[in-house]
Amino acid sequence: GRVSPREVVQLKLALQAIIPIKTACLYSDNEEIRSIGERLNLCESLRERIEREIQPDPPQLINKGDVIAAGFSPELDELRSISRGGRDYLLRIQEEEAQKTGIQSLKVGYNNVFGYYLEVRNTYKDQVPQEWIRKQTLANAERYITQELKEYEEKIMGADEKILALETRLFTELVTDMAEFIPQIQINANIIARLDCLLSFAKAAEEHRYVRPVVADDCVLQIKAGRHPVIETQLPMGEEYVPNDIELDSEQQQIMIITGPNMAGKSALLRQTALITLMAQMGCFVPAESAHVGLVDKIFTRVGASDNISLGESTFMVEMTEASDILNNVTPRSLVLFDELGRGTSTYDGISIAWAIVEYLHEHQGAQARTLFATHYHELNEMEKNFSRIKNYNVSVKELNGKVIFLRKLIRGGSEHSFGIHVAEIAGMPKSIVNRANTILKQLEADNTSVGVESRQNLGQTASAGMQLSFFQLDDPVLCQIRDEIIGLDINNLTPVEALNKLNEIKKIVTGRS
């Protein structure tokens, strides 16, 4: 009942657009698409009535007028003729009266006081007929009204109001009658939406080389050369997305613990697994060489870091709330994706919680869901030795000349390194900080006695060592960096300018530290 005139015309255009769609469906070789075409209702009577009753380009609001099409209502056409043809009518009256009276300067005018009038200059006032009624005297002219002018004025003044009332009544009648077509229109909308979705699936599958997955009533998830449907479309020109395999089931490999460095692609792997599963179950082809998707009842994800400070919830609190929600609702039919669980608290708390959660998903009879668990806690790789359905994987990298190359390929076995310092260097961290971090890391790895308070004391001693620049402290990081800079110089081929530049760089290292 609130539809606007413009929306009514849009409905007509939409119904017209269904005609070629229905024809295409009916001539399809596919039985399902033919049945879709048969259910499309063209609503010819409604379309024709809108075409006949409403202007092609009406205003948004009915009270703006000019909504009903010309030729539909004789009464409306007559009123419009009076309203729009007023100037011509007045000119005709002016010409007729001028011929009758011989007053050549006769003019028809209008004001808000007494409406339409005939104006006669004083030169001709003796020729004014007796039946004219004088209404106003001016300096060099007089104004009169006639019975014909007053009758016309009444007509023209009421015409606009009558036009609006009549157009409103006719439009309301149309809208009321349109209500009976609502069920057919809604069915059409649903069918067109379904066709649109299927067409999008088909176009995406054709354009991006998707394959038809097997959706089965089992607990096997097997994806060969799976890809992320969004990331692969946003890669730089000439760069190929590195596909990966995923195999999960309830007998041999229920949980995959995925380790590997930052930026290697662990999160993308988790997300593409969820997306491929979701796409398969909604009837879409998937970005992979092949896919077998055992029916999944829920996809649970705990990814990313967030907080809700306004409600007093820290990042870790939000993380634990989401994890507990997963564990309270998981079933053996679910797909569970954990990304960096426990990173919001201390290392040992985080490892303990992560271990306990993975153990619960493996051991609890009602929670043995297919699970991907991406983590930097390399200690979790020990779980494979104690739990039969847990398998270790890592996203591989290659070290070359002190640089790390991300291969983004999932391979069997755990990883021992996160390469976090390398990522810090890529992010533009000052070189002195990167070098100092490497020194502390080597000392911590060499010490390897990090237990409780003792580990914190060792870390404190390690971090405090080298804070004061000393030429007698051989492991000072700044001295090490200066030594490396000097050792790398080719003195025999060094020009004076290059020597000064190198000396300036060494000075910056020292002054930056001090």
Helix content: 40-55%
Q: Tell me the quaternary state.
A: single chain
Q: Quickly give the CATH architecture of the largest domain.
A: 3-Layer(aba) Sandwich
| Overall residue-averaged pLDDT value | 85
SSE order, one letter for each helix or strand = HHHHHEEEEHHEEEEHEEHEHEHEEHHHHH
Total separate domains:
3
Helix/strand-derived category reads: alpha/beta
Distance between the termini: 78 Å
The CATH homologous superfamily name of the largest domain equals P-loop containing nucleotide triphosphate hydrolases
Main beta sheet strand tally, sense and closure: 6 strands, mixed
Radius of gyration: 42 Å
Query: Which class of the largest domain in CATH terms?
Result: Alpha Beta
Residue windows where pLDDT falls under 50 for at least 5 positions: 449-473
Name the beta content range. 15-25%
Q: Per the principal axes of the C-alpha atoms, what is the gross shape?
A: elongated
How many alpha or pi helices?
16
Number of strands: 14
**CATH topology (fold) name of the largest domain:** Rossmann fold
